[in-house]
């Protein structure tokens, strides 16, 4: 089947006018008191964020499981609720889980991501090898879903192993090359593949090089906004298509979730206004650099 | 502080007479009907396994989170219960989560592992770089806990990236070398470090080479039993100490959880007998090869 996820992402970015992905990193110390106390703030906060994202129009949302799991099983259950709400709002869900394991264990993680969470794509770590990605790829291929593989990440330590020289080229390029068959398996009617590659906005030269190596892979670009990269850097791996520059989604989390003043908002309406403003500003910033 | 986890593992293996780690991979299709139906089987099955492990004497237990997460938030909560029970039985817990992420997200996963689950060690993936391991290492150092880093895994696909040649040596050796400062930080009074390295039993030559590169790292050895490696291969990275050969733990999961006949056991007593037999056989097999 043609990859529905890839097509939804590309069409969503076109419809929204910018390839913005809203990252859901719920940090209870920064969520306004009007959402309640402690971990109980999380579901309401995320639901309101999703409503603002849907209203504004964005390409995808990316719940970051580590922030939910910090609160144990209750946090995990909250992540399931948040994904159900995102699905109800028809927002494509990229579950940021960064899982990776062998055989039956990977099957468990894949079942969790696509079935329990109802995710449209899930982030995975390639270190253990291609066989460990297969449970994700086979489900994604059969059901028109996506898989987002860590290739060149946005953190300073990315250089430690990803940049090591393997016969004249960095390791991350070897990972990208090895994923070519997977990209072909998840090809959408749009000409883009549901095999996403994570390419940090903080390394635009690497993103351009990755685009040459993986011409059909949608990029999942972290590092825009709070991590320091601007729109130009974030879009370095995007290419000119018939409808403008495209090629993935750019994620912003903290800059959208905790814009100046929002933490001290007194009313939901005031908070919603600040969030809507932050999303609009990020979309305009990305659109101007497209 | 001296690393309490490293010392507990080494002393536990000595006391047990074999460095056996019992892997908890609850597969509901293979758990006997006497434990109930579907995912509800998991807590009782795991608790009974832990009781048999404690009775027999083993070095550690390793709950495999993917098997629990396959059942969503209820499965995640079951994993928390199972870890609490393991702690009550004073069994060192190596939480097999294979997490890895940047900054605050990694903090969330580390809090989840050590605080919510009460794990004594947690498996992590090094691909994203040393900064992504720091939240685990700093907690482990402050609290005498362990961190088990994937170095050379037991699956066939391990060769895809871990074996790539980096200036004359495979990538996994570069990972091991980069972990030397971390191993020093988690040093125990036993002379062994709470910085564990995952070294698959299916690759004994690699394990011997890893031992030369990381003389103080405890090895977490998967792949013994159902994955095909024997005791001799599993112990390839162990070295002669004052009290016999030592250097880590050898994990067995399916061969202990689902021994012949156990799936059709009619009574708990019958099932317990088969499990006790399987654990005793694995311990004797490992002891004979020490």
List keywords for this structure.
homodimer, 290 residues, alpha/beta
Structure write-up:
The structure is a homodimer of 290-residue chains. Chain A has 290 residues and is of the alpha/beta class. Chain A has 13 helices and twelve strands. Chain A has an eight-stranded parallel β-sheet with strand order 2-1-12-9-8-5-4-3. Chain A has a two-stranded antiparallel sheet with strand order 6-7. Chain A has a two-stranded antiparallel sheet with strand order 10-11. In chain A, β4 (121-124), α6 and β5 (146-152) form a beta-alpha-beta unit. In chain A, α2 runs parallel beside α4 (72-88), α2 (41-56) packs across α13 and α5 packs parallel to α6 (130-143). The model of chain A has no long low-confidence stretch (mean pLDDT 96). The interface between A and B is large, with 58 and 57 residues.
